[in-house]
Amino acid sequence: MQENSSNRLLSELMQQSKLEMPFSDFEETTMHRIEQTMVQEVTVSRDRKLSFVFFVLGTCLGLVLNTILQRSEYSFLTLSTGTIVLVFQTGFILLFLIQLDKHSTLIKQWLRRRQV
Amino acid sequence: MDDLYIKKVCSGDRDAFRYFVKKYKDMAFSVALSVVKDEFVAQEIVQDAFVKAYRNLGSFSNKSRFSTWFYRIVTNEALMRLKKVKKELISFTEEYPAEIADESFLLEIAKEERAYLVNEALQRLSPKESLVLRLFYLEEENIKEVCEITGWTEANTKVLLHRARKSLFTVLTQLMKTQL
Known about the structure:
The complex is a heterodimer of chains A (116) and B (180). Chain A has 3 helices and no strands. Chain A is an all-alpha fold and 116 residues long. In chain A, helix 2 packs antiparallel against helix 3. Helix content of chain B is 71%, strand content 0%. The longest helix of chain B is centred in the last third of the chain and has 26 residues. Chain B is mainly alpha-helical. Chain B is built from 8 helices and no strands. The chains are: A mainly alpha (116), B mainly alpha (180). At the A-B interface, helix 1 and helix 2 of A face helix 2, helix 3, helix 5, helix 6 and helix 8 of B.
């Protein structure tokens, strides 16, 4: 019985103590932020697509160059074709792995942002 | 009414989202403030929650009410922010003595003072206790809804609510003593 009355009192008290947003410009700043976020999102999405396209193009170009280098009988200073191909392949693989890591981070971030 | 505005926003009317900002900003602010206890941080949390809600409105299914879904976002944001702050600060949680509180004194004071005292007391409670009180008493006193918003079990929520009520009256008694 007593618990019921204190419950009623608490309910009344909580209703009376409702808070109001003390920042008068809140509505405007929130709408402005939403607008900015959406604009930014469109730009980021376009950049992400572009970076993926260039990643694929770069990989293809690297593979083509690698094949051409392997077939050619070209030497630079005292370096033989085999050495040049090896240096190129090492650089190519390193670059490929770094870019792949960056892309996977981007994709993970994008997926995380899509979840609430 | 919410459904109509959800459809409007989803069909590209960005300004229709203003309706949700207007309608839910105060309650969202109360919820965020009960967790983080700082007006500026609470404002940031509510703003982040609105942005998140806007971006994910398309994935909102009508299984629950918009308010429940939105308060869940606010609660998660606030608890995440609290976790972050707790890593940086050493928190001191006040322990209140188990004093039997007589709440009848609250009826004797003016309405404005009562509201001030309750808000002050809520600021002094632990984040979970003040959160459960805010959600329960401002959202039609529905335990299931509180569980849906916070992700706690029903038993856990009931225990927390009972403890929170006791703590609130104890803090109110102490506040009254210091004010007199």
